[in-house]
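User: I'm putting together notes for a lab meeting next week and I want to include a structural view of one of the chains we've been expressing. I don't have a solved structure, so I'd like a prediction I can at least talk through. The sequence is below, exactly as it appears in our construct file.
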Amino acid sequence: MSRTMTMSGTTRVLGGITVPDTPLIAQAMDYARTSSEPYLFNHAVRSWLFSVRLGQLQGVPHDPEVVAVGSLLHDLGLTNCCTGPKRFEVEGADAARDFAREQGLDDRRVQLIWDSVALNSTPSIGLYKETEVALCTAGIGLDYGGPQYDQIPPDEMNSILTEFPRLDMKRCFKDSVCAIIKAKPETTYDNFARDFGERFVPGYHPQSSVDFLMNAPFEE
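Assistant: Thanks for the context. Below is the predicted structure for the 220-residue chain, given as structure tokens.
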């Protein structure tokens, strides 16, 4: 891992990808590392690298620190540091917002980070938000399910996966989401966790959005 100075500041190479290197990003990486299981930390870093590389390849101007913090902290809601009553993306977004405020970021950047985390599993919205939110969503989605996989050159993909291996990501991530479903099922009915519950959690009976309408306390 090397560090160099450029006209835009200090950079380093992670997984073969040149990324910005600032105190804020270093703090976010430390936060993600100390809070997360190894598989989840590697997922967060890969998501950041994919976000950065997609932005580079597509020539998308963006705030690199916001993309870094949003990507690196996007799954805090699956860690033991966020065990509140809200859906895990919102728990994580609130924790990321607290971190960003503690680091002195202004309200606009803090909001972009919150949106990046809260919307990371809702690409049908996140991809159409501000550039930073969209890049975070794209990088996270690439590592999760493979959209835009073919946009990353094979040698770069190999470098990223070698330095930050997946560590049984599919099974571990499934187990993490199922644990959330068992602990607070009421937070999973209107989001992607519902799919995991219906497939993997015996006795899971999600409420339907149709029921909310039909059972509303109105005559018509």
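A couple of points you could mention at the meeting. The first strand starts at residue 3 and ends at 6. The chain has a mean pLDDT of 94.

User: Perfect, that's what I needed.
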